Amino acid sequence: MVRPPRLRVDCFALPPGVQWTSVEDALMHLKANLAPVTVVERVPAGRAAGRILAAPAIAARDNPPAANAAVDGYAFAHAATGEGDNILPLVPGRAAAGVPFTGWVPEGHAVRILTGAVLPEGTDTVEMQENVTVEEGRIAFRGPVRHGVNVRRKGEDVTRGKVLFPAGTRLRFNDIPLLVAAGLGEVPVFARLRVGVLSTGDELKAPGSPLGPGQIHDINRPMLLTLVERWGHEAVDLGHAPDRREVVEALLDRAAGEVDAILTSGGASAGDEDHLSALLREKGQRHIWRIAIKPGRPLAFGLWQGVPVFGLPGNPVAAFVCALVFGYPALARLAGGTWPRPEGSLLPAAFAKRRKAGRSEFLRARLGADGRVQVFRSEGSGLVSGLSWANGLVHLPSEGNDIAPGDPVNFLPWSAFGL
Ligand code: AMP
Ligand code: MG
After folding, report:
1. Do 103 and 132 belong together in one domain?
2. Predicted confidence (pLDDT) per residue in 344-400, tens digit
3. Contact 339, 352 (CB under 8 A)
4. Domain ranges, residue 173
5. Does residue 181 sit within a domain?
6. Are 382 and 315 contacting, i.e. CB atoms less than 8 angstroms apart?
7. Which of 258, 266, 387 minimizes the C-alpha distance to 320?
8. Ligand 1 binding pocket includes 322 (Cβ within 6 Å)
9. Residue from 205, 211, 220 whose mutation best tests the ligand 1 pocket (most atoms within 8 A of CB)
10. 150: Cβ below 6 Å to ligand 1?
11. Position 34 in a domain
């Protein structure tokens, strides 16, 4: 099978000397250095929703492929009709959907036609049956009728050769009818990106299990698996590693053979138990990015046996925000998509906040019924209730101007992150 080239080993290396990286620069770096890593396959159009086009989708035919009737009625040449009463003799036979009329209709004659039937030769206009009386092999209707009325023109929807979607488009549920109408029974798409999700930490227990002293439930793994699936990738549960280097290493080794990208959470800093970070440094390629973002501690990016690893923070809210801000576009790109740019809207703040310059902040936010943006009662990055409360994030830029109620702020609904 033809495989795309692997990522360059230094794809996560920031320019030397860079200490703190802005969110914008970090995103630009990822955009410039990541490329699709999956193979191309063909899928039926009806299975293509959520998949990413590996080549432009080009209309293979006109839609409609031929002029046809939009109503049940009678077809004739407009040239022979006029004001007042029109009486046209009927030619025998009829045109029905899928069973075209094979003859020719002389000017001044009409033929019975049903919705969806190809317009017979010699006709260009259809009068609907409700406006027509039929008697003794003739029809009568009141003129004038408009030329071409009740006719769906050949190619009026789509013309053959038109680029419907460029390569890299993630097809939406509402794009499928167009593919089929344009004659595309199958489309080339990138194989789904398999994204492994791994949690690290001695304190973590499976969701729902009883907790011993000092233990907490593993929130991040189900959270990240859900995000990955919502983004249209194949989510692979890599389980949970205790803070033991050899276990983390074995899990990464196994994962590298199974998945195209790995999201981990926890253990990404430089603490005693930050095995993920240490392993990547010693046995893979690791780059720590000190990104000027709140919430979020340093993020670790690296390759493990050529597979990109995104080391997210352990705090659930920080992991969530970093997954949306960095993981969403990075995974989209690895999966073959064009780089998504979150589209926010500037809306008045319903809150006040004093700020320091230097860090971009992403707060759990909610668009109120009054059109103003509210923020969660606390910025504590362990408060996952705020994720449920929110219906998006508000992005406060690093310039750090204080915010007063009514000031415009950039609200990013979940949909801005492909959710
Ligand atoms: P760490 O980066 O491993 O030091 O983790 C930072 C904080 O996040 C600690 O309080 C951890 O207990 C917590 N944490 C790490 N991983 C998870 C997880 N999967 N679910 C919930 N909390 C976590
Ligand atoms: Mg930990």
Report:
1. yes
2. 999 999 999 999 888 999 999 999 999 999 999 999 888 999 999 999 999 999 988
3. no
4. 43-59+157-190
5. yes
6. yes
7. 387
8. no
9. 220
10. no
11. yes
